Amino acid sequence: ADVSAPPAAAPRDWEALQAHIASCEVCGLHAGRSQAVFGTGAVQSPEWMVVGEAPGEHDDRVGLPFQGKPGLLLQAMLASIGVLPESAVFFTNLIKCRPLGNRTPKPEEIAACLPYLQRQIALLKPRRILVLGKLAAQALLGSDADLEQLRGRVHHIRSETGEDIALVATYHPASLLLRPQHKADAWQDLNLARSIAP
Ligand code: URA
């Protein structure tokens, strides 16, 4: 898959980008979606941008990210470090359309959708990005390292418009539901992200 060829030039305007993604048919996932899930939350240089993997069944139906069980755990974890629902957070995913059966997104689907996430980052200019799970972390960091290597420290990525943006990767809440022994590490990662200076 050619990551350097963005789908028909993603718009540089936030509303136009949202409309563009809503009607995107670049990869096969559009065939199985109810709707694309663009993301939701604070859009003026938010304190946090939280990036998950892909919409689940509820998310696809409602049109918003993190509506299911992993979302509840995510909200509880954020609340435990003082990030409350009214805080400035924008939630989105690496992949905007639900993979049927919640299967893992394919490399070509990630390549097709990553330019949208990159554009969202450039337009939002979040203070910090919290990335959930290996796939989204690898995509944003351009790495093939395991999550264990990527979590536990602050990375810096450059947005399309040249801003330096701090990024912390941690376990995906769906994986924490299966492996609660990683919750302490995830909590450390969230605290690390919170401690990033302005
Ligand atoms: N819902 C989302 O929106 N993203 C995930 O990664 C998981 C569930």
TrEMBL record:
Keyword Lipid metabolism: no
Signal sequence interval, chain numbering: none
Enzyme type, top EC level: hydrolase
Residue intervals of the Uracil-DNA glycosylase-like domain: 38-191
Domain of life, source organism: Bacteria
Record-listed E.C. numbers: 3.2.2.27
Molecular function terms from GO: 4 iron, 4 sulfur cluster binding; metal ion binding; uracil DNA N-glycosylase activity
Keyword Glycoprotein applies: no
GO BP: DNA repair
Catalyses which reaction(s): Hydrolyzes single-stranded DNA or mismatched double-stranded DNA and polynucleotides, releasing free uracil
Keyword terms, alphabetized: 4Fe-4S, DNA damage, DNA repair, Hydrolase, Iron, Iron-sulfur, Metal-binding
The family this protein is said to belong to: Belongs to the uracil-DNA glycosylase (UDG) superfamily. Type 4 (UDGa) family.
Name of protein: Type-4 uracil-DNA glycosylase
Origin species: Pollutimonas bauzanensis
